[in-house]
Amino acid sequence: MILKYKSKNIAFMICLLFFTGCLFFAQEPIKTPAEKAHYSEYTQHQAIARFLSHLAEISGNLKVRVVGRTLAREEYSSKDLLLCIITEEGVSSPVDLNRSKPTFYIVGAKHGNEQSAKEASLMLIRDLTVGELQTLLHKVNFLILPAANPYGNWFDVRQNEQDLDLNRDQVKLESPESEAINRVFREWMPEATMDVHEKGDDFYQVSIGCVSNPNIDASLQEFSRDVLLSEVNHKLKEKNITFYEYLVRQRMGIDSSAGVNYSEDDRGTREFMMRYSTTDLNDGRNSPGIYESLSFIQEGASRHDLETLGERTHYQYYGLRFMAERIGEHGKEIISLVRGLRKKLLQKAGEYSEDDLVHLRMKYVRDEKEPFIKINRFVRTERPILGLLKEDKKAGDPLTYGDVVPYSRASDRKIEEVVVTNWFPKVSPTKSVIRPLAYLIPSQFGDVIDTLVKHRIKVDVFIEDCFLDAQVYTITDIAEAEYDYLPPQKISMEEKEMNTVAKQGDFYVTCAQEGANLIPCLLEPESQYGLIRYWKYQLVPEKGDVFPFYRVIKKQELPLVPYVPWKR
Ligand SMILES: [Zn+2]
Which of 101, 77, 74, 75 is nearest to 87 (CA)? Predict the structure, then answer.
């Protein structure tokens, strides 16, 4: 009897232990690889794949897709680029996406040595799939590419395996990484994007920049700045995280964002100026922005050391999270704003009108109403503290380097408010043209067409010779650029209308498509951000030449079929 009672009791205890155990395990949050390692190492490709496999196993909201593959190098093999599609409905393709919610696309650590961008993205993926942010999926769809540069990540370097700066490759799309980043954007056409980076050590722990190219409708910049950034700033303040809109300091007359390798002499000793983030189209912000998107770059302050990895992952995470939550709060407005602008752009590009301008060249200008900007920054001071003693010492005892632990935090830097008078907050177009209906591109420019196709720009091909009315440019003066990635220093031309021949095999690129803003920016010879500035396309003409790309401004019946419409 006693035995029976005892065994019942033991069975009960075992059950109790089992259930408590289940509860314990159910509540144990899943750690990111970096959390598990207590931020003692950077998370690498295999650990990311394992972590995502674990999350995908337990969450029906996460679908992981391979969207590209890096190139193999002797010292590092090729790796899959992993996209996390996180939705309430658990969809895995754009056609199934619930379009009543905005879609937010995040790309992490395109620069391999900006590690916290990736660690914070992984944390966000965890919280959206199995953590406290699951309810946000009622309001927002997510596409997250947490590690956009596995090679750079492994070697802790900025470039990819081709030694390319991926954030200057969004026009050429020469790297498999940039091609994948861009393809995901074009296939899903998210309303909002965020490219996550790290800057240097800075008083402002999180900085976010919004669209700045004047071809992008001004309402997107206004909404970004006045609503989203302002609210994110407020939320970050509550977390004691310092924030300022992303600012760039560069020497006057130098384009520090173009991707140019300036010589020491050219960098020179010119005065510094300050501006918002670049108007260039080859980075990860204006490149999706040009499709009328709410596009951002987040830059976390960084000393690029393991010691601060946990701390910087923390504030990068909150920058991302608060932006995601704000997008959720303003979902309806965002959908109507972005989709409305995209529709309007398509309509405009379908008709030739003198009022429909595309801005080809632009400059950063001062604002009379805002003659200076006040910001906080760290200044190095003389170090009053040499280090911390490991053990007690008496006066007269010898002190060696081994007795001291370095003391580097806060003591050697103080915060100073600076007033920047070389402040150029605005952008002013300096050269604009009327958007044509289309461009005629001769058949020999196959590499130009390949790039356009990579951008998912619709290209047609002539199936027989025909006459065509077009506008052509004759070059009257030209001075080549000194550097690859820069437009000609000087280019002037005369424009005339003529009846010309389009040959079988020539290409025809209509502007009445989603890329309506991008197409003229890439193809016009006077464009500051056009294909002409990359030496690989060999597009720089000589004086007296007729520029090979013709502008079509009249609607005409033409013998065209879509070029390469097939899918892989
Ligand atoms: Zn970066």
Answer: 101
Domain assignment of residue 158, given as a range: 26-257+266-347
Rounded to the nearest whole angstrom, what is the distance from the C-alpha of residue 413 to the centroid of ligand 1? Answer: 24
Residue type, 518: L
Cα(201) to ligand 1 centroid in Å equals 13
Do 155 and 46 share a domain, yes or no?
A: yes
* CA of residue 179 to ligand 1 center, whole Å: 17
Residue 66 lies in a domain: yes
Distance CA 52, CA 125 (A): 9
Instruction: Specify the number of domains making up the chain.
Output: 3
Cα-to-centroid distance, 111 and ligand 1 (Å): 5
Distance 74 CA to ligand 1 centre (A): 25
CA of residue 325 to ligand 1 center, whole Å? 24
- Whole-number Å distance, alpha carbon 297 to ligand 1 midpoint, is 9
- The answer on 465 and 414 residing in a single domain is no
d(CA 94, CA 456): 15
Q: Which tokens belong to 317?
A: 């995470």
For residue 248, the CA-to-ligand 1 centroid distance in Å is 13
Q: Are both 187 and 329 inside the same structural domain? A: yes
In angstroms, what is the span from residue 118 Cα to ligand 1's centroid?
12
C-alpha 460/C-alpha 438 separation (Å) is 10
**Strand (E) or helix (H) holding 183:** helix 176-188
* CA 284 / ligand 1 centre spacing (Å): 10
Query: Distance, CA 197 to ligand 1 centroid (Å)?
Result: 4
- Rounded to the nearest angstrom, the distance between the alpha carbon of 166 and the centre of ligand 1 is 9
Gap from CA of 327 to ligand 1 centroid (Å): 23
Residues 339 and 283 in one domain: yes
Q: Do 235 and 283 share a domain, yes or no?
A: yes
- Distance of alpha carbon 115 from alpha carbon 48, whole angstroms: 13
Q: Which residues contact 185 (CB under 8 A, 6 or more apart)?
A: 105, 193, 288, 291
Picking from 398, 378, 384, the residue whose alpha carbon sits closest to that of residue 205 is 378
DSSP per-residue letters across 429-482 = EEEEEE--SEEEE-TT-HHHHHHHHHTT---EEESS-EEEEEEEEEEEEEE--S
Sequential pLDDT tens for the chain (568 residues): 444 555 556 565 555 555 554 444 455 689 999 999 999 999 999 999 999 999 999 999 999 999 999 999 999 999 999 999 999 999 999 999 999 999 999 999 999 999 999 999 999 999 999 999 999 999 999 999 999 999 999 999 999 999 999 999 999 999 999 999 999 999 999 999 999 999 999 999 999 999 999 999 999 999 999 999 999 999 999 999 999 999 998 888 777 777 777 777 776 677 889 999 999 999 999 999 999 999 999 999 999 999 999 999 999 999 999 999 999 999 999 999 999 999 999 999 999 999 999 999 999 999 999 999 999 988 766 666 667 777 787 777 777 767 776 665 555 678 899 999 999 999 999 999 999 999 999 999 999 999 999 999 999 999 999 999 999 999 999 999 999 999 999 999 999 999 999 999 999 999 999 999 999 999 999 999 999 999 999 999 999 999 999 999 999 999 999 998 676 6
